[in-house]
Design brief:
Layout (H helix, E strand, L loop, with lengths): L1 E7 L11 E7 L13 E8 L2 H8 L5 E9 L8 H5 L6 E9 L5 H10 L8 E2 L2 E2 L5 E5 L2 H16 L10 E4 L4 E2 L7 H4 L4 H17 L7
Parallel strand pairs: 8-9
Antiparallel strand pairs: 1-2, 3-5, 3-8, 4-5, 4-10, 6-7
Helix pairs in contact: 1-6, 3-4
Length: 215
């Protein structure tokens, strides 16, 4: 069964535009059979500005914490400036710690694809560079298989009108970003970028995923 939702393209720091694209987001008809090995699990997604993705996933019931950081590069202990310059190979990403008995990896994945544009290579909005790429960093074969199956479904259904370019990679060392990046939206809601770009994004998630929100 298909579910009609609005996709708000994730815009990155220093962008000044906000666009919405309505698509049909497919759902897997039969849940993938899987054994939950641990109650508390970790997921890592890169989908543009981590200020935006962090704010979205903090809204969800079952999510215990969301940490902004960097992953997938070659530099040890990268700084925000180094990552933004594209010198390290890292992506801006979020590390989500969640209770899999309350929200599944598949549900997190659905929201991930609903809140950024997975069809633009190394780009979100007006910001370009490998640090803004769309990528899933899996911790086990279950996460890998679910990610592959869902992307295959998105492409089969031609959900976005063009192929999904989201990468699927094994999780490597995740470096926590500087303190001022953590919980950025909730501490800076009056800031221009937050009110113009992130607030509409959070409000849309609250509307579309009411059953998955924290009480």
């Amino acid at each position: 069964m298909k579910k009609k939702i609005g996709i708000l393209l994730a815009m990155l720091p220093f962008s000044c535009q906000s666009k919405e694209k309505e698509v049909i987001l497919p759902q897997i008809k039969q849940p993938i059979k899987m054994e939950i090995q641990e109650k508390i699990e970790v997921a890592i997604f890169a989908g543009g500005c981590f200020w935006c993705t962090e704010a979205v996933f903090l809204e969800l019931n079952g999510v215990q914490s969301v940490v902004s950081g960097y992953i997938g590069g070659k530099t040890i202990n990268p700084t925000y400036k180094e990552v933004c310059n594209g010198d390290t190979g890292h992506a801006e990403a979020i590390q989500i710690t969640f209770d899999s008995t309350k929200i599944s990896f598949g549900e997190l994945l659905e929201i991930f694809f609903a809140t950024h544009d997975p069809t633009t290579l190394n780009r979100q909005g007006n910001d370009t560079g490998t640090q803004y790429r769309s990528e899933i960093f899996y911790h086990n074969e279950i996460q890998k298989n679910i990610s592959e199956d869902y992307i295959a479904l998105l492409n089969k259904e031609n959900t976005f009108g063009k192929p999904t370019v989201t990468l699927i990679s094994v999780a490597t060392k995740f470096y926590e970003a500087e303190d001022y990046h953590q919980n950025y939206y909730n501490q800076n809601q009056s800031q221009g970028y937050c009110s113009y770009v992130i607030t509409p994004k959070v409000e849309k998630v609250r509307k579309l995923f009411k059953d998955k929100l924290k009480k």
